[in-house]
Specification:
4 copies of one chain form a homotetramer. By secondary structure, chain A is α/β, with parallel strands linked by helices. Helices cover 30% and strands 20% of the residues of chain A. Chain A has 2 domains: 124 residues, NAD(P)-binding Rossmann-like Domain (Rossmann fold), CATH 3.40.50.720; 161 residues, Dihydrodipicolinate Reductase, domain 2 (2-Layer Sandwich). In chain A, the strands form 2 sheets. Chain A has a 7-stranded mixed beta sheet with strand order 8-9-7-10-13-12-11. In chain A, helix 1 packs across helix 11, helix 6 packs parallel to helix 11 and helix 7 runs parallel beside helix 9. Chains A and D meet through strand 7, strand 8, strand 9, strand 10 and strand 13 of A and strand 7, strand 8, strand 9, strand 10 and strand 13 of D. Chains A, B, C, D: Catalyzes the NADPH-dependent reduction of N-acetyl-5-glutamyl phosphate to yield N-acetyl-L-glutamate 5-semialdehyde.
Chain lengths: 342, 342, 342, 342
């Protein structure tokens, strides 16, 4: 059994981690912390977990993680970088669902996240936890930077094109749509039901933190320079990301075959038959990324549709996938939930 | 392994049965029929099942159920009563998710369902599949009448009061609210998104088919006469039933204790702490019924709140629970999904 | 023209007042205050009002209401009672959309609103602004206590029965369902989209502030004692209240005719044909209350369905209706919006 | 007063026409037809119109439009082209909300709409009713082809760039998102609540009927060739279109100023301040198109955000705007509804 700690378990990625880990055959949840909810039973806050988890939230100041093999950070950025070194020194592995270790260029990170990075050396060590490109490095890692929700869907969508070198990499466009849970469980006006329901809008068109993360990830797959226009939108649903990706073809290629080959052995990337239109609900509650490839009017613009559940493959599910890889477990263990439809 | 057939698998109870049975350790799905979708792959119609189910829908006219141990009917009423006898004669057991065998009084059934009943003798034999009251009979049954969605939530809510004889049984009120999936997957105008979203309404206030089913079920728990005002409402959500039940106390009783005792050993009925307000999402995708008991202002009106997922405990999950009981499997096998929240 | 001020215009009742008053032929909006948004243009906060309102929010500390004929309070409770006397002394009339002047019994008010009342004498003077019962008093009033959203729908639903003396008034039941805007625009976790969407729950079953308001209102229509079980629910829609009301008949009566007669001359109460099921969307954005009357199975339990838009007839629309009455304008002036459907 | 007829008033564009025309000061609704609902009162089908419209639906076979000045077609394609000639010969003007007269190239129309066009000469005469480009021609027209919902939002978004000749016109991208009412009121499975809610998907990526309409409209604004990748998506809301438009800059230009100048005198096109993110709810129920202009990272990709209510500016509102122009009424008459927010 793997002994597990969770830092910051009161948000949506936290409760999703709990849902998954509570039934993972090799996971034993030892401790979960929350400043605000210390002393509260986990299943009082999340009645969906009644009968599943007997723990209560611990005060982070008093938490003893030395009993843990691995600690998940489901915190806002800025927490994990502060606590990582001490945990690593205890021999505890870390899977950070926040953004602290995702961006290798510290200056870029500091610009987008608005604070000084306190552990730049650990950024260097951290492995970017996208199994579809970094499986081998994840296996031996102590510190995983779990990818962002948009970056997961967008990178998995673009990677075959980038690796094959068949598109203009300087003018990629990612028009992305996210369910509201992507904004987290913090109480703010714009994500109130009466604001976000029956409504659609873009945000952060001038610049979004996930753009440099995507750019870095795609740049690692090619020697060409990468530039990306990234426009995120908020859509009135709870879960789900739909990335609509546009690229200009630079040479002829059998797109469907390219994608099918690239993801042939990937347990969680599903390339749909030609002509498909993936729906976000077809991955609701599951760790799948489903991708469809289009070339409208046989023109030179490729349209890639890539969908995930932002809380699973875009966060907690991918984190557990990384854990499975790190501990030599079957990669799909405990994350084989069938999507909930309808 | 139990060999399983499904008749009519293209509706919401059908796809939910598929979701559950695809990962049930003792279930092997052999055949699934659909008149309209014969020849279509199941996962073409429901991409959420890609990689889970390799079958295609069979033409009912050509379906051979002799290979099956048990057949589930996920059909509109009128089908199961027509086909049940032939299956039973083949030695196949039946779990009917439709209404054909729920009402013992044939005249009442015919009045509410608007057709002649063609197998009244089988109605006599059929066991009403509410495990919390009929577990022993279910064990030995060949033919299960799986309860309706509202009747499950309403009966589980009222039963402790009725069995204890502490309320006026002639003036029960059930104000129930259902998600739109309860209306099925048939294309009709009132359940279109643009009709049912951002909207709330009652329906069938003059009389609804589930009222006699509830009345029959509650009458079986007492020697007193039962009468019930049943008002169903359609609420803009996909899944979930919320039954708000009102009864007038006839004598003093410790309500919380009454409910906790009644459901102490029930794996799927969860009596919440006093003062709770159960949310339908706390059972989304799961087989739980959660119940809270209130007595506002210490008056003589009891308010019971009972919630289920209409497609799970209200349909497919309870059907599999019944199958587990019939085949002496652990009652919770394959239906222990943790609710999806958020 | 009536010169108008609004105190606290950043919530949902505030923006709804603005929507209505911006096109009211006799209203001229002079000033609108907000502590948090002082200096911000109204149409920056609410782009729906671009081109309609040129004002910016004023600091309440610096606001001069002496130019106003009437001031609307769209504030949390506790503000209006504090400021009312000074305004009245300036000769300014007040329409208070908050709860400060609704409850005549000061002790009851203080119990439910958890603070000391600082203007009990004004409570005595205040007229409860439900035009369907108090039209004449409203005409001459300086201070209007605009009814709560639930109390409007529930009282309009029960009044004909209570006035006619045909039901058991000690066991009334109001099972009410509200859209999420009823909870206001304040950022709190339970009304986040990802919490309230695809979910249904009750709240405050042990006791809700609107229960004593309803009780007081109904008591004023009869010499009999009134008792009421009031159970509110939150439903995933933006606007709308659906009150499902239950009462036990004490004598025979032609219910449909009773309701039609009672509301014959009421411009905003619409009694639907017998057998109807009103949908909340049929009043979306309008000042109507639509009511349907049922007596299921010809039993002794009457079921009344009463719907409103909580922000219009349940708040801002009714406030303007009261203003029209106070200023001898046609009662329907400026509030004749046709509901937005779909 | 203008005497008005409506053909096919049971769909969403029909009921929206009714909502608008019922309060239009110069419109008198004389007749409304429906094959399926002949004899039914309009306000029985749409209770939101109770007290507003006393008509019942007429059988189209018996309808006498000679009393009408103008007839609106709110029908599926194929009807208006069949009936237009007879009406025009009666001296009745036509505003066709369907697609029958939108595409000038008959072969293109026939390809996309799958039927033979029976009135190609009238296509030549028809004026494309986008007031922002065709106001003068609309004034004298007998036959208006009212634009499609997507084409309205997309064209208004692209026009300033195209007219100014500052972008690569051969690689335009329109990533569009529509509320579900855009799919009409016809009962089909994909637009059921339980299918479309909490879900996001694209459709018709291989090709959509509105692509040639947009291409034709933009081509008319330039001498350059136009090509467009058009990807529509279905988003879980009732009303609203959000078009996210991408174009590659070919020369430097002050984008904000370009847009503000172009739409300076347009009553229904609202160019938002630089940096804005328009929300669809900010036009809900209104005839506005709001546009924001972005140039992320000062790169060469322009991002235009253009929103409308698909049933108003995208259909019924624009139709009445055209009527106002045709009859020399103030262009904004009867379509000045303030958006309903929240």
């Amino acid at each position: 059994m793997i002994n597990i700690g969770i830092v910051g378990g009161t948000g949506y990625t936290g409760v999703e981690l709990l849902r998954i880990l509570a039934q993972h055959p090799e996971a034993e949840l030892k401790i979960i912390t929350s400043r605000q909810k210390a002393g509260v039973r986990v299943d009082d806050l999340f009645p969906s977990l009644r009968g599943q988890i007997a723990l209560q939230f611990s005060d982070p100041a008093e938490a003893d993680f030395s009993q843990c093999d691995v600690v998940f950070f489901a915190t806002p950025h800025g927490i994990a970088m502060d606590q990582a070194r001490a945990l690593l020194e205890l021999g505890v592995k870390i899977i950070d669902l926040s953004a602290d270790f995702r961006i290798k260029d510290i200056a870029v990170w500091e610009k987008w996240y608005g604070m000084e990075h306190v552990a730049p050396d650990l950024v260097g060590e951290a492995v970017y936890g996208l199994p579809e490109v970094n499986r081998d490095k994840i296996k031996g890692a102590r510190l995983i930077a779990n990818p962002g929700c948009y970056p997961t869907a967008v990178q998995l969508g673009f990677i075959p094109l980038i690796e094959a070198g068949v598109v203009d990499t300087n003018h990629l466009i990612a028009d992305t749509k996210s369910g509201v849970s992507g904004a987290g469980r913090k109480a703010v006006t714009p994500t109130l039901y009466a604001e976000a329901s029956d409504n659609f809008k873009s945000y952060a068109v001038a610049g979004h933190r996930h753009q440099p993360e995507i750019k870095q990830g795609l740049s690692a797959r090619t020697t060409q320079s990468i530039d990306l226009t990234f426009v995120p939108h908020l859509t009135p649903m709870i879960r789900g990301i739909h990335a609509t990706l546009y690229a200009r073809l630079a040479q002829e290629v059998d797109l469907q075959s390219l994608y099918e080959q690239r993801y042939l052995d990937e347990p969680f990337v599903d390339v749909l038959p030609a002509g498909s239109h993936p729906e976000t609900r077809s991955v609701r509650g599951s760790n799948f990324c489903r991708i469809a490839v289009h070339r409208p009017h046989d023109g030179d613009t490729v349209v890639i549709l890539s969908i995930t559940d932002n809380l699973v493959k875009g966060a907690a599910g991918q984190a557990v996938q990384n854990m499975n890889i790190m501990y030599d477990l079957p990669e799909t263990m405990g994350i084989q939930h069938i999507p909930l439809l309808p």
